[in-house]
Prior knowledge:
The complex is a heterodimer of chains A (456) and B (292). With 456 residues, chain A is of the alpha/beta class. In chain A, 39% of the residues lie in helices and 18% in strands. Chain A has helices at residues 2-21, 43-61, 92-100, 113-126, 157-160, 170-193, 211-226, 247-255, 267-280, 296-302, 327-339, 347-366, 371-379; strands at 31-38, 65-67, 72-82, 106-109, 130-132, 163-165, 201-208, 231-239, 260-264, 286-289, 310-313, 383-384, 394-395, 411-418, 423-430. In chain A, the strands form three sheets. In chain A, strands 8-7-9-10-11-14-15 form a seven-stranded mixed sheet. Chain A has a six-stranded mixed sheet with strand order 2-3-1-4-5-6, with helices on both faces. A two-stranded antiparallel ribbon of chain A has the order 12-13. The model of chain A has no long low-confidence stretch (mean pLDDT 92). In chain B, helix 1 (4-35) runs parallel beside helix 5 (143-165) and helix 9 (223-236) packs across helix 10 (241-262). Chain B is globular. With 292 residues, chain B is mainly alpha-helical. Chain B has a domain at 22-222. In chain B, a hairpin with a 2-residue loop joins strand 1 and strand 2. Chain B starts with a helix and ends in an 11-residue tail after the last helix.
Amino acid sequence: MLGLLVIVIVVVAVAVAVWQMTPAPSAEAMNIKMGIVAGMKTVEGQDIERAAKLAIDEINNAGGIWVDEWHTKVNITFVLVDTVDDAAGSTAGPVTRAITDDQVDILIGGATTGGTLNGQIPAITNRVPFIIVGASLNLVTRRGNLPANNSLYINDTEGMSYMFHYCTTISDYSETVTHFLADSVKPKIDAENSFASSRKLRLAVIHRDDGYGRGVRDVTQSIITEDSLPIEVVGTAAYAASATTYQSQLISIKEAKPDVVYIAGFTADTAEIIKEGINDVGLKSLYIAVEICEDPQFYTLLGETGANQILESKVATQWQGSTWYLPKVGTYVENYKSKWSGKVPGMIGVDTYDAIYIYKNAVERAGTLNKTNVRTTLETTDMPQSLLIMENEKITFSTGTNYHEITPKTFIEQLIWDSASGALKPFVVYPDNMPGIDSFKQRDFVLPEDYEPGSP
Amino acid sequence: MITTSGLIETLLWGIANGCIYILLATGLNIIFGVMKLVNFAHGQLLMVGAFVAYEVTKIAGLNPYISILVAMASVALIGVALEMFAFRRIRGTDKLNEIFISLGLIYMFENVAALLWEQNYNIRIPSPLAGLSLSLGEVAIGYDRILAMFVVIVILIGLVLLTKKTKIGLAMKATSQKSDTAMLMGINIGKVYIFTFALGAALAGAAGALYGILFPFNPVIGALPTIKAFAIIILGGLGSIPGAVIGGLLYGIAENTAVYLLGGIWQDAIAFALLIGVLVIRPTGLFGEKGE
Lengths: 456, 292
């Protein structure tokens, strides 16, 4: 009995000694350097920064992130990786500096496809985990699958495994848009204009002339074909990213006599296209903006011209119901507004906020900041959905063809002009329900007041 | 699908856009013609003009077309300050000094504007005519664009009268031809330079106000119009006001029809191809003279 007691004491003593001898860095070195990749000249970049600071402050105020190998909670240090305008040529330099000079443990952010495709290269080369929260062209995690002669191909499977995409892709939202057109818009147009049900809905696509815009155009056509939807693409028009006016494109779209105009643009250009289309060119159609426009700036720029126009979205930060569709979204919006002088959050900050908690979860499971270990635990993420609605209500990263992507659900809002407040308000019109949310739809879709359909 | 009505509409819109380029290029041309000064920050004066007109319209509730006058006066004053405190100091020194001062001014203007108008990205000056169009069968053009063309014509007529019929206009012409001789003839070159720069800046201010009525603008909008204005004065001929007018119209029409006929990506390519084509055939530009 005494012998057993001695053995137990010795074992415990050795265990304590080993635990104590685990090398811990100095107090000042014990922090997590989080590189937030944001183009601060853009509204999207500013939203990323604000959301990141909100999440980091929340985590730090709660003591930080538990790092098991150091037996303590560690605070996050915010490192701004300012990519200025997030254009293709602006990103690789700041990201490289963040990796080599600031020695960041993780990169989170990246709004545009062009910027991210360049900015991710230093992260791939240096094996730094990068949770990309924008760049909806589904290439940022799939570059290894491209043909070797494609200029975007990356022959570095291990490096690519450090890339994670916490964002909806062009396929995700184009699927929602096309099915909304087939399920809700076409029947309404047919009924109000006595069109035969065999008539296909006439769709025009106006897009930025870059990978993202062309991607939306092409994937839309593919979904229509694959899903045999009663939609016909009757016109497409591209515009340069530097364009400030879109009259000629809109005139050519108008000539195609579409029922609906689908816009693959960013906040400012999309608002301007709708305004020029309706006010200047007289193309009184139904316009569909995509989720990047889920930003207060879009609502403001569009103004009353946007009445009854459509916005595809993945998070309703300007939800109009009496109770929030997801309580967590309501809390996020209130905390964001409280921290940032009443500013309403945009869409891309939501992804950023969630991504920071995904990283926290991965570090706590890895028990270390070692980037390879964290990469592995990121890959096995299995968390309840947070601010974005997920297909199975869980955040997971796929490892198949849709490499390191999530399974988000998107929806359609109609913008209603509220003359009392002089502002546009979004209401969900599609779909009826979402995973875990009953009665999601808030009102029926209606055509704009002075809507003119395309040719019969 | 290309149709006659679509093409006519595109041409009309191209002319309207070209009118704004005409104002900007004419201002740049006057400054170059008289002072032999190349101001790369000219487009930033357009941007300031747009914001001044926006603020005046918003705060004083003025009609945006009246606010053009305020924008012209305000930007002219800025022009006076620039001439007196920046460009005059380096007059007669290496041309590189001029270039670097004007390049530095670009960033100063943009950064100050970003500080002042942080929240006003991609706004337009509210016009009571917004959304109203004149329809001629299948062809429609907004009243704002028609009015913009009218305003530009009035300003150009005023400019011609100023340069041909007034003492200061004749002094500008004399200075542009031979400044030393003009000085010997008793012309106060310093005053002519101040007036010229103020006049060029005022035209940029007017262009800015019209730009702000027709297009969204922000603190960094000046760069592209500057490049286009340079292309136009090279196309039309350095120092030539008729050249700037014809060049501006050709440029506006070329970029709009390129988009309509070939697609958005060709907008700038076709316009600059036109410039290269003209220079190959006539190196001095359409109305330029040898030696400019």
